[in-house]
Amino acid sequence: MATKSLKKRESDLANSNRQLDILSNGIFKNGELPTFKDKISETGQFPLKAKKLEILQINVGYMCNQVCDHCHVDAGPDRKEIMTRDTMRECLEVIKNTGAHTLDLTGGAPEMNPDFRWFVEEAAKAGIKDFIVRSNLTIIRANKKYYDLPEFFKKHNVHVVSSMPHWTRGKTDKQRGDGVFDKSIRALQDLNAIGYGMPSSDLRLDLVYNPSGAFLPGDQASMEKDFKKALKEDFDIDFHNLFAITNLPIARFLDYLIASENYEDYMYSLVEAYNPSAVENVMCTNTLSVSWDGYLFDCDFNQMLNLPVNSKAKHISEYNEELLEGRNIVISQHCYGCTAGAGSSCQGVVA
Ligand code: SF4
Ligand code: SF4
User: Fold this and answer.
1) Cα–Cα distance measured from residue 167 to residue 221, given in angstroms and rounded to the nearest whole number
2) Residue 56 forms beta bridges with which residues?
3) Ligand 2 in contact with 334 (CB < 6 A)?
4) How much is the pTM?
5) Among 3.20.20, 1.10.20, 1.10.260, 3.40.50, what is the CATH number of 6-349?
C-alpha cells in the first residue's frame, strides 16, 4: 500500500508534541539511556551554542510529489503549507545582507512552490557563493512544466543536491515509491547532458543517501565509490559527491521505527555510536532554518518538531545576527542522529 503523510492518516505522530513525548519518555525517562543533554554535558559541550551564520536553509513548503517512507518533513501532495511571495521577500532582505556563504532551498519539493522560480531568480542576484536547491529528481520528470528545470538551474548556477537512496531499482522504489528509480535516472541523465555532475564541471551535482531501514549509514567515502561505479556502469551517470545522512527518529521515520518495533534498538545504536567530536560541528552551530511561514529554527529537524530558536528574533522579519549568534541550541534525543559515528548533516558527515 502506498505511503500517506501522517497528517493525511490523522496519525497521533502528525502532532510534534506527541513525537517529543516519545523522545523524552520511556528509555530516556527511566534512565536506561542518557538524554542528549546529559551526554554532551559529560564532555562539557552543553549548552550547544550557535556560532557565526554560514548556511541559511529555507524550507519553501511541505508539498511534494512523493511520499517517501522515511520523510522527516512528513511531506506529500496533501501538504498545503507553502511559502508566500511576501515571506520570500522577507527572506531576500536577509539573503542580501547576510555574510552566510551558503543558501539552501528545501521542501517538500521546492520546485512545486508557485513562486519558486521567481525566488531563485531574485536570490541568485545576491551572489551567494553556494546556492543549493534540494531536488528530489522525480519532479523534473513529473510534468512537462518541469522538464526545463535543469536548464533553469544552470542559468542561475544552482548547486543541485538530490536524494538517491540506492543504485538499484528495488531498494530505491521500496523507500520512495514505485517508478521513482527510473524517473530519477532519467533526471540525472538530463542533468548530465547539460554539464551537471561531470568530473571537470563547475555545475555541482551531489547525491544524498539515507539508509532504507533501522540502521546507520556505512562509510561515506566507500559508499560514494560504490554509487559512482554502479551508476556509471549501468547508466553512464556522473555526479560529484555522495552525502551519507543518518535518519533522525522523527516524523515518518519515527512512525516506521515504532510500527516495526525497532524504536528502542535504533535509539540504543545511535547512543552507542555517539561521537563527541561530531558535536562540535553539528549543523545547527552554523545554520539557521526558516520555515514556510518565516519562523526561525536551529535546523530543519527542529522545525518539524516545532522547537523554535531560543532567541528574541523568532521570525525572518526580525532577523538580527547579533541576537541569533551565540544562542543556546534547542536539543532533544533526536539530536543523537547528528552525532552518531562520523556525524550527520545536510552536507553529509561532520567529523
Ligand atoms: S522527496 Fe524528500 S520531501 Fe518529498 S517525501 Fe521524499 S523525502 Fe520527503
Ligand atoms: S537535530 Fe538539529 S539541533 Fe539537534 S544536533 Fe542536529 S542539527 Fe543540532
Assistant:
1) 15
2) 103, 288
3) yes
4) 0.96
5) 3.20.20
User: Is residue 344 within 8 Å of 299, Cβ to Cβ?
Assistant: no
Ligand nearest to the CA of 300: 2
Paired residues of 205 in beta bridges: 160
Report the residue among 338, 344, 347 best suited for mutation to probe ligand 2: largest number of ligand atoms under 8 A from its CB: 338
User: Does the CB atom of residue 73 touch ligand 1 within 6 A?
Assistant: yes
Domain range list for the chain: 6-349
Sequence length of the chain is 351
Query: Phi and psi dihedrals of 100, rounded to 5?
Result: -60, 140
Between the CA of 235 and the centroid of ligand 2 the distance, in Å, is 36
pLDDT at 212: 87
Using DSSP, how many helices (H) and how many strands (E) does the chain show?
A: 13, 8
Which residue's CA is the nearest one to ligand 2's atom 8? 284
- Span 92-131, pLDDT tens digits: 999 999 999 999 999 999 999 999 999 999 999 999 999 9
Q: How far apart are CA 55 and CA 253, in angstroms?
A: 25
Confidence bin at 336 (pLDDT 50/70/90): very high
Helix intervals (H) in the chain = 16-24, 36-42, 85-97, 116-124, 149-155, 169-176, 180-193, 220-235, 251-259, 263-272, 276-279, 300-304, 321-324
**Ligand 1 close to Cβ of residue 192 (< 6 A):** no
